[in-house]
Amino acid sequence: MAKRRSKRVEGDASIANISRTRRAQLVAEFEGELGIDHKARARAAEAERRWIARKTFIVWTIAVMFFAIACQKLWIMGNDVDVPFSDINPVRSLFGE
Questions:
Q1: What region, left, alpha or beta, does residue 35 occupy, with left being phi > 0 and alpha being psi -120 to 50 degrees?
Q2: pLDDT tens for residues 8-58?
């Protein structure tokens, strides 16, 4: 006697075989029925990406500025000594004598 296939297995196989475009259309229709606004969601995602890019730019700009200031200060401190690495006192160089 032959075994009967369950309808669930056939249903899963048919969903897996539909194209990505059709699947996206079905999801969009379903979300539209739920009241999800795709344009608003896309705008919010784009605004979030822009904000992350701005924050990254600001943080890296500040980091490069601090690095440049530190390099300049070390260069000035190195020029102030007679013999290299003999008379470097960062506290005196930073805050005066």
A1: left
A2: 555 555 667 778 888 888 887 877 777 777 778 888 889 999 999 999 999
Which residues have a Cβ under 8 Å from the Cβ of 31 and sit 6 or more positions away?
38
Cβ atoms of 38 and 31 within 8 Å: the answer is: yes
The per-residue pLDDT for range 60-94, each reduced to its tens digit, is: 999 999 999 999 988 888 777 666 666 666 676 66
Distances (CA, A) of 60 to 49, 67, 88: 17, 10, 30
Cβ-contact 87, 81 below 8 angstroms:
yes
Q: What pTM did the predictor assign?
A: 0.48
Counted residue by residue, the chain has a size of: 97
User: What is the C-alpha to C-alpha distance for residues 11 and 14, in angstroms, rounded to an integer?
Assistant: 5
